[in-house]
Design brief:
- Strand 16 and strand 17 form a beta hairpin.
- The protein folds into four domains: about 180 residues, Rossmann fold (3-Layer(aba) Sandwich); about 180 residues, Glycogen Phosphorylase B (Rossmann fold, 3-Layer(aba) Sandwich); about 170 residues, Glycosyltransferase, CATH 1.50.10; about 180 residues, Glycosyltransferase (Alpha/alpha barrel), CATH 1.50.10.20.
- The chain is an alpha/beta fold.
- Strands 3-2-1-4-5-6-7 form a seven-stranded parallel sheet, with helices on both faces. A six-stranded parallel sheet has the order 10-9-8-11-12-13, with helices on both faces.
- The protein is built from 29 helices and 24 strands.
Length: about 775
């Protein structure tokens, strides 16, 4: 009876992964899956989006609609734009860590973050013990995938146990195989010149993890009993292996063959064969051998093909083989054990009845794995993903339809900054968009405003007026300094009275940071001199401070100061002391599940990590900036929602270790400090993932947040004061406005640097 091809609600499907004629297992799988789905569902439109490891190298068929360059993260974003404009109903992602660019293939996440359509991700690798990068990528991949496909029960169990994926999100679909008729091996042997011989076969791209040397070392014992045995090794050297080590592995295998005196019993076919010829090679085999060395291999296409064709299989017990060959469907041997391989090969060649029974069992089970059945299961998964997306909660619908990440850099509007500033300095607060003059000024905000003015000067934004602003804010800090106690006042009333004898340690640290920035970055000599004098007077007091944030602000200020005053002994000694303090509290508190400096996350959190990153890099202390990187990576993970948006620690309760986390009220200062710290991490590591995190934090201002609401008010140039659980705070005070403008200035300075340096892909990436 013919198969009834029902119409599907999923009409357009994009298949993302490697694609033929690229020579790798993922390329073969993606091509076969697309072809099978298209054949079973002819009313659906299927197309491919492959990843290129070599630019312009592959001559793809017409089904390929868009190409991604592996190491160019901007290319992934362009692919997302293409897919969004193509109005696909589902995206089928073939995931293997090694085929995407970035640490642990993290460039893929840039595409998924911007994608509107639901994603069904096939996991060709599921690691039980991932490293930090792999775990981070996997966790976000899981969060961004509507459904996950695994090919084995072991993969399903690991997803639940290690990554806490609910069973309802996982589809177990076997590796597809071609539907070939069952013939005795002698039917195919003549065309390969092995008529009358007992044929052992291993096929696939060659690389050292395949363990083929152990079969070659087993051959002398096999040949001693069965002199007519021939072992066929079918497959080209893996392209990655070829690029890095050439043919060293293959030449080593050939040397083993010579040393073991089994040249008449081994045939190398150094080429990548098409499906028709491959099935004929498999058909000619009496035994198929997979001696792989990696127990954690969760999927093997070569094993699936041979098994489904009804071959008796001898394999090492990697996860896929251990599951597929159980219940007498094959034979398992220990890893790297030539004696065991020889024993089992000879035993099966000796026992034809057992070998034939094993072949029959494999062929019968293989009928469930043929591509037409696999395609049916995949379409069911695509339809489920489409249904889940259609029924998604309002927040996710908003993110997909109207709240997806912005693609244009906002216009710089300094109108609100001018309005909030008078001849004394910048006022603290606003009621809606109107300056609230009655609540006066503070050193905290004038320090931030001075940093902004200096950065705007570097960007050459309205230089005359910006220089006037910088002078106003610097004069405020000069007036705020109380030489009697060598501390800054913080609060100044509207009638020009200082309301404290000395301000907080944090406000003092911010003043140090601002003055250091003025010294290190301002092009104006007189301005540098004034800031340098005040910096020198104010710096010694920080050695008496106990606030880690004051230490961090001061360290960043010292770093800026030393840009121009490199040999200043006082600054160098204070930097050494404060660095030791931050390292000490980190080492005392940090644990694998809480990689932080304190027992809680409160405000301006990223500045602590930022200080160690910038200081460690400047002083050449790798252990210092690596602590900062670890802490910042952990903080980013804590502050990333399941949909990949920045979710800053809320000020309505903060987050104590082992306590409940406050998700609201989210403050712009947290987004700003995250932008700044991630950009510094990017400069230190050159890892594009850090730029991605900075962009994600910046986009929080523009609506890529839990409520899909814009915090930046482009019409006024202000920024709303925070994000409540149900609305934004419509007041546009100085701290919030400065947080946005500082973030914008830093992003643009990074863009300008990229435009000058032009590293691959960065200029395009930051010019969004």
């Amino acid at each position: 009876m013919p198969v009834v091809k029902r119409a599907s609600s999923v009409q357009t499907i994009a298949f993302l992964g490697d694609y033929l004629p690229r020579k790798c297992g993922i390329a073969t799988f993606t091509s076969d899956l697309l072809g099978a789905v298209a054949e079973r569902h002819p009313d659906s439109r299927c197309f491919a989006v492959p990843v290129n490891d070599v630019e312009g190298c592959y001559h793809y068929p017409d089904v390929v609609r868009f190409e991604i360059e592996e190491q160019d993260v901007a290319s992934y974003r362009r692919a997302a734009d293409f897919l969004n404009s193509s109005e696909v109903d589902a995206v089928s992602v073939q995931h293997e860590f090694g085929i995407f660019g970035g640490p642990a293939g993290s460039h893929l996440l840039a595409l998924l973050r911007a994608l509107i359509a639901p994603v069904v991700t096939t996991l060709h690798t599921v690691l039980r013990t991932p490293n930090a990068d792999q775990r981070r990528v996997m966790q976000e991949l899981v969060a961004r995938s509507t459904r996950l496909v695994v090919m084995t029960e072991r993969g399903q169990a690991i997803l639940q146990e290690i990554y806490q994926v609910p069973l309802t999100k996982i589809d177990l679909i076997p590796h597809g195989i071609p539907d070939v008729p069952f013939f005795a091996p002698d039917h195919y042997k003549d065309q390969f010149g092995v008529t009358g011989r007992r044929v052992l076969l291993t096929f696939g791209l060659l690389s050292p993890n395949k363990g083929i040397e152990h079969v070659l070392n087993a051959l002398p014992d096999v040949v001693a009993e069965f002199p007519d045995v021939v072992y066929i090794l079918l497959g080209a050297t893996h392209p990655n292996e070829l690029r890095t080590r050439g043919e060293a592995y293959r030449l080593g295998l050939e040397a083993i063959v010579r040393n073991n005196n089994v040249e008449p019993n081994v045939i190398f076919h150094n080429r990548f064969v098409e499906l028709q010829e491959l099935t004929e090679f498999i058909g000619a085999a009496d035994l198929y051998i997979t001696p792989y060395l990696d127990e954690g291999q969760i999927t093997s296409g070569t094993l699936a093909y041979a098994f489904g064709a009804g071959k008796a299989v001898i394999s090492t017990p990697y996860w896929h083989a251990a599951e597929l060959l159980r219940d007498q469907r094959g034979v398992l041997v220990p890893f790297a054990d030539p004696k065991a391989i020889a024993r089992e090969v000879s035993g099966l060649l000796r026992d034809e009845a057992r070998r034939n029974a094993m072949s029959d069992n494999a062929y019968k089970l293989g009928r469930e794995m043929v591509w037409k059945n696999t395609a049916r299961l995949y379409m069911r998964s695509f339809e489920a993903a489409r249904g889940q997306a259609d029924a998604a909660p309002c927040e996710l619908v908003a993110a997909r339809e109207v709240g997806h990440r912005p693609h244009e850099s906002p216009v710089l509007n300094l109108g609100h900054l001018y309005q909030m500033t008078d001849s004394i300095g910048i006022f603290q607060h606003a009621t809606l968009t109107e300056t609230n003059r009655s609540e006066g000024y503070c050193t905290d905000d004038n320090a931030r405003a001075l940093i902004l003015a200096v950065l705007l000067g570097q960007l050459e934004e309205t230089p005359k007026r910006v220089r006037a602003l910088a002078t106003t804010y610097a004069a405020f800090l000069k007036q705020a300094f109380n030489p009697g106690v060598s501390r800054f006042h913080n609060f100044l009333s509207a009638d020009r009275r200082w309301l404290d004898e000395q301000g907080s340690e944090d406000s003092h640290g911010r003043a140090i940071w601002a003055l250091g920035t003025a010294v290190g970055r301002s092009p104006h000599w007189s301005f540098q001199m004034m800031a340098e004098e005040l910096f020198a007077q104010a710096l010694p007091a920080v050695l008496e401070f106990t606030s880690p944030r004051a230490w961090a602000f001061s360290l960043i200020g010292i770093h800026e100061f030393l840009r121009r005053m490199k040999g200043d002994r006082q600054a160098i000694e204070v930097r050494k002391d404060l660095t030791a303090r931050l390292v000490s509290i980190f080492d005392i508190v940090a644990q694998p599940d809480w990689t932080w400096f304190e027992e809680g996350l409160t405000y301006d959190n990223a500045k602590l990590a930022h200080a160690l990153i910038v200081t460690g890099r400047a002083t050449g202390q790798k252990s210092v900036y690596e602590r900062g990187i670890r802490a910042l990576r952990w903080l980013v993970e804590v502050q990333t929602s399941q949909h990949g948006k920045l979710r800053p620690i809320g000020s309505n309760g903060f987050y104590r270790r082992d306590g409940a986390r406050a998700d609201f009220d989210q403050q712009p200062i947290e987004a700003q400090s995250t932008v700044s710290a991630c950009l510094e991490a990017y400069r230190v590591t050159a890892d594009p993932w850090w730029y991605e995190q900075a962009q994600c934090a910046f986009d929080w201002f523009l609506g890529w947040n839990d409520l899909g609401l814009e915090l930046y008010a482009a019409q006024t140039g202000g920024c709303r004061d925070g994000l409540h659980p149900d609305r934004s705070n419509e007041n546009q005070g100085a701290e919030s406005m400065l947080a946005f403008l500082l973030s914008l200035a830093e992003m643009r300075l990074t863009q300008n640097t990229a435009d000058r340096a032009q590293p691959a892909g960065l200029a395009a990436r930051v010019a969004r």
